[in-house]
Amino acid sequence: MDWRRLDLNLLKVLGCMLEERSVARTAERLFITPSAVSHALARLRRAFGDPLFVRSGALMVPTPRAAALERSLAVFTASLDLQLDPSRASDAAFDPARSTRNIRIVAPGALDLSLVPRIVAAMREAAPGMTLAVEPFERRSYENDLASGRVDFVLSVGGHTLASDNVGSAVVREDELVVLVGPKSALYDGPDAIETAAYLSQPQVYPLPWPVMQNYLDVVLARSGKRRNFSLLLSSYAGLGEVLTGTDLIASLPDHTAAVLVRSHPTLRLLRMTPVRRSDLTLLWSQAGQQEPALRWMKSVIATAASAE
Predict the structure, then answer these.
(1) Where is the HTH lysR-type domain (predicted)?
(2) Does the pLDDT of residue 94 top 90, yes or no?
(3) How far apart are CA 122 and CA 238, in angstroms?
């Protein structure tokens, strides 16, 4: 479909429907009749070849196609607002407490236990109307995702996601890779630091934020012909504490995440690795998106939460 042939008035209806999920409330906001909204939706459905909304009780729920359009439409309307009313670009004009902005970030799974809860706590306190969607990090470039507004921020471990002139970046903290062991591990009663040979001799559990051989530690080990002994692969970090507590398996993870697990599972023991392995946690954002006060505010929230850990 060539968007130039689309009546742009229909995008106002679509954008409002995505926010309101109601034909009646959309009509009220746009000062038109519900019949006019229904007619516009029929035209949009023909144009996109998709139902766009399906009724669920009193709400009109967007289809996956409509949900995918929501991010691009939000970026377009925010940019247009700023062009028509430059005062909207002022931080003084932005009130987090009144914002209903949906923020989407990409983050490694380990941050679900440590940094993400801090970010959410700050948002709930200062901007309860804002929402946050977190999607898992993949070892690839996110330049197009940031430029299109599909995602607002990316948290990258180890600096593997390169920034271009269109993408801003800042190191928000440094993580140390540590080892967690439970009472049944052969390492539990040993020294506080573990050397590589002893580390590699133990059966390990690996949460899967990305494929094993894209993990920076395994890439480094492979260069010297070494590999870890994985006995369990998990889909996330959610069950890691229970697994380590009840088995002889060990796990390596960032120290901030390890500290959270030790607090919730006090019998776990944290060991440092020798040699010490550290990596940067980098925040990435779209330079163009920083025209929007809500995104400037959110960048500050993320950076502050990371530095406070």
Answers:
(1) 6-63
(2) no
(3) 22
Q: Which CATH architecture has domain 175-278?
A: 3-Layer(aba) Sandwich (3.40)
Q: What is the pLDDT of residues 116-170, one digit of tens each?
A: 999 999 999 999 999 999 998 887 788 888 887 888 999 988 755 555 778 999 9
Domain 86-173+280-308, CATH 3.40.640.10 — does that match?
Answer: no
Q: What number of residues does the chain have?
A: 309
**Where is 226: in which H helix or E strand?**
none
Cβ neighbours of residue 186 under 8 Å, at least 6 residues apart?
A: 202, 248
For the whole model, what pTM was predicted?
Answer: 0.74
Structure tokens at 43: 């035209």
Dihedral pair phi/psi, residue 263, rounded to 5°: -65, -35
Residue indicated by tokens 């970010």:
119
Residues with Cβ within 8 Å of 18's Cβ and at least 6 positions away in sequence, in order, are 62, 66, 69, 70, 73
